[in-house]
Amino acid sequence: MTALPDTQNRWRALIVLCVGFFMIVLDTTVVNVALPSIQDDLGFSQAGLAWVVNAYLIAFGGLLLLAGRLGDLVGRRRIFLVGLAVFTVASVLCGIAQSQEVLVTARFVQGVGGAMASAVILGMIVTMFPEPAEQAKAIGVYAFVASGGGSVGLLAGGVLTDAINWHWIFFINVPIGIATALFARRLIEDDKGLGLSEGADAPGAVLVTSALMLGVYTIVGAAEHGWTSGRTLGLGAVSLVLLAAFLVRQGRIEKPLIPLRIFRSRPVSGANVVQILCIAGMFSMFFLGALYLQRILRYDAIQVGFAFLPTTVAMGLMSVRYSARLTTRFGAQPTMLAGLPLILIGLALFSRVPVDGDYWVDVLPGMALLGMGAGTAFPALVTMAMSGASPRDAGLASGLINTTAQVGGALGLAVLATMSTSRSDALREDGVANAIALTEGYQLALIVGAGLVAVALAVTLTVLRPERTSAAAAAQPA
């Protein structure tokens, strides 16, 4: 099929890309609510159950950077369609799984497909929307899907699991994946890519994929084994050695798989550092906030999903309606400086939740502020990260921004969950009631999460220079 390049179809193509991305983002959290049912049905141990999540995260986080670069080399639409196909087939295997081994293996394959499809989406968006104002608006839609999809997953997982059974959290992907692929073939231009001769570095691909997969594996296992354990330190060291070997190789060969020039861009490097810190800090609210609602306020799975909806609505309103306008008029860095303090204040408010908390008084204000801040800051952050990449490196930059989001989420989960658990365990040993001990553990992790966002704010102020788009300059009076 041939693509239809007119303006109307570009926005239709954006919807198709975002639907595909929403399906993939949804799958990172939709499983969490169904874990107890999966455990009962397939007989997982507590440690084994974690692999239903970790197998997906390791493949997803480990392959994003490589998949993004492959999109530049062989064509982003091609990688997107292959990723959708792999993800959809793996979803069927997950849904029909009747054993632990089949489910965990299928989840790993699902992560492979998710990485391939999502890694190239931003690259396609900035190519389809080169004009700054349109690009900012399109990235706002993308950022809303990226930010809000996780909280919607909590609600969808609860509804599907309670109404039917856990198998349907995977089966629901099949019609969405097929429809997305069909529309993508119709609406998205078939770019040819630079060619594998521009960077077909097989040893480099093995090194970077191994380094990232092992790194994510180490992070997600640190909560169970401890950050100072021999296992964590040993695997972490091996991951860093592999990554260092990859970087040395890329700096020496004539046609590297991932050109290191992209990291010399201050907007690219700085924005990705800010994203790691922000995602790590925000993860404390989504993960520990859900535990607080379930364990302390006694919400069920569906109630937890509805409780997070105000955050999603605030993200959507700010990212789609306002962030693009602010970025176009004032630039990405000032827009980030408007949104990050709201995230910081929201986390600080949420860290004060009491044992006898009330949702409307103690939970909602922090959630609303965080949603508004994320909806304002993240589209601008993505705009800045992509602005520092040349068109030939757009897929690589897209894969990089997705990789840092995954690393930030995994790191935030491991560090903050471990810190919260350690604090609660220590209090229980001192005779403190379980509910109080849990709440104080959550409070500590939320305060640390706010601290990470504060560091991100400092990086934005000092590293990311103010910049003004051409559209912003044109808006000023002569």
Automatic annotation (TrEMBL):
Location(s) in or outside the cell? Cell membrane
Q: How does it sit in the membrane?
A: Multi-pass membrane protein
Q: Key word Cell division present in the record?
A: no
Regions that span the bilayer? 12-35, 47-67, 79-99, 111-129, 141-160, 166-184, 205-223, 229-248, 269-292, 304-324, 336-355, 367-387, 399-421, 441-464
Q: What is its main location?
A: membrane
A molecular function annotated in GO for this UniProt entry is: transmembrane transporter activity
One GO cellular component assignment for this chain's record is: plasma membrane
The organism's superkingdom is given as: Bacteria
The protein's matches in SUPFAM superfamilies, at most eight in alphabetical order, are given as: MFS general substrate transporter
Residue ranges occupied by any Major facilitator superfamily (MFS) profile domain in the UniProt entry: 13-468
The record's section on Pfam families has:
MFS_1 (PF07690)
Keywords linked to the UniProt accession: Cell membrane, Membrane, Transmembrane, Transmembrane helix, Transport
Does this UniProt record's set of keywords contain NADP?
no
Q: Which CDD domains match?
A: MFS_MMR_MDR_like
What is the designated name of this protein?
Uncharacterized MFS-type transporter
